[in-house]
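Worked example

This section walks through a single chain of length 306. The input is the sequence exactly as stored; nothing has been trimmed or padded.
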Amino acid sequence: MTLVETAPLTAPGASVASAPAEQQTQQKFVLTLSCGERAGIVQAVTTFLFDRGFNIDEHQQFDDSLRETLHLRTAFSGSPSYSPDQLEEEFRPIADRFGMKFSFNDQTPQRVLVMVSKFGHCLNDLIFRWRGGTLGGDLVAVVSNHETHRAMAEAAGLPFIHIPVTPDTKADAEQRLLELVDEYQADLVVLARYMQVLSNDLCRSLEGRAINIHHSFLPGFKGAKPYHQAHARGVKLIGATAHYVTADLDEGPIIEQEVIRVDHSYGPSALSTVGQDAEALALSRAVRWHCQHRVLLDETSTVVFR
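Given that input, the structure is written out below as tokens.
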């Protein structure tokens, strides 16, 4: 959907003049919003952007007829003189009129703090995608209750902070984590197989900005040795679930699930290997989509604009 006029295509073989400075320095933004269904919402959004000379690069919306709500994600570009805060201020009268929950974001990468315990496959995958430029955000630090993956983190140039956790030190450890979130200005906390149950208070503090990976289609195979449980039950599908962290253990809004078909020939070790692949895939997608502002919370579920 185009709101401003574009230049004609250049004929093959013709010389291409340098683009005006204004075009070369265009800023990119993303608007996300949710509200009750009403006529005129999309027209109000597009008029707002058009009046400020913006061009819509991508537009997706979902009309939830069951809940009578609308969810929208619009990526647009234009004058770098605008900031997300300025756009939010100018858009607020429209948001108030329609009862919108909304946000504007620019291209500033989301800062991601990763938490890990002894299993390193998800951390390794996140680092690989981050260094390759496909993660969607910037890793800023690794926090762990074990020393196991210090070398992996430091080899990638990431600070590694060891915070031991015992029943007696749990509250202090969680307070230290919140201090690190502030210190590293982390926008997102990723539990990459971090094997500690977070307190209700910490879950509330990180609401909507902490993602966990679970080794099954929730809520199956909880507890120790999930792949031994899966083998004992003769499963035919191995799955993993990436979800937002809530005080309800492993029951937060689901962002992504990955599934891989298996059969009777897979023992617990083979199932674990396949499961780790599923965990890494589901988690990296969830992190990327969150960092690209493609995930909108909708009560206990999510709307994901891929």
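What to look for: The longest strand covers residues 27-36.
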